[in-house]
Amino acid sequence: MLSDTKETGGSTVENNSQVKAHYDALLGRTYTWMMGGASTNFEENRKFFDLHGLRPPTVDAKALDLGCGSGFQAIPLLELGYAVIAIDMSADLLQELKGHKEALARKVSGQSPLPSLTLIEGDILRLRALLPSDALASVDLAVCMGDTLTHLQSTAQVQSLVKNAVSFLKPGGTLILHFRDLTRHLEGTDRFLPCRTDENNIFTCVLEYEEAQETFLDGRDKEDRFVLINDLLYTRPDASAPWTFKKSQYKKLEVPPEEVLKMMQDAGMDTSFHPLAFGVVAVMGRKKP
């Protein structure tokens, strides 16, 4: 079973409109390819979930995929037996996820039916507006993986997301926040990253580091540090065609892992920290009874 829902009561949160515009203009249509392809990422996450012993605790277990993209997490979670609610701002990526689910359904045709997949186009910061109130304390697993967390525009938004995600978890439910630690700055030409190339596409990313100010209610200032992401794509339909150059930019938030650990603990979770490859970290929490 698969259902689609669009966000009502407003579109994206204003602060995140730049991210949505970037995905709509450039990254949404190239993201899966740029990340190495769907099959590679499905397999990586199958191994990740298996390593951490994530299994549906009941036959009707639910998982919430925040910033689901094209389904790198959602598809393995469906395979495990979770009914998945998948939320993303990119219509292109949600459509791609829908296609992956349909392909999986054909592959397992004649076997046990797949759990349901609900697709919601909307901003994960409006989680309480996107999901019905009876969904509170009903979810067994919530994941926010890839670069989704760094797309938020302040540590205050990260904290709000954590609190809201935990509110939808059952006691004993698990939250996984998986993101790149951008607090370790690259310098010089190391900031120029060749993301992926094939015969008809050349994708490069250039990083610039900047700072912004956020003011607390008591007048204190807190610095939120950002990385300006410049995505550069040369593309052509085939070898006989001329190259076309596309470019777009948006900000990513530097999210200190130790702050995320504290946020999850403050939200009533027992936590663990897992450093992964290429500067990626996973912070995992289990909601206390």
Automatic annotation (TrEMBL):
CDD domains tied to this protein: AdoMet_MTases
Identification of the protein by name: Methyltransferase type 11
Keywords: Methyltransferase, Transferase
Keyword Methyltransferase: yes
Coiled-coil segments on the chain, per record: none
BP term (GO), one: methylation
Species for this entry: Nannochloropsis gaditana
Residue ranges constituting the Methyltransferase domain according to the UniProt record: 64-173
Pfam families: Methyltransf_25
GO molecular function terms listed in the Swiss-Prot or TrEMBL record: methyltransferase activity
Keyword Aminoacyl-tRNA synthetase appears in the UniProt entry: no
PANTHER family recorded: CLASS I SAM-DEPENDENT METHYLTRANSFERASE (PTHR43591:SF97), METHYLTRANSFERASE (PTHR43591)
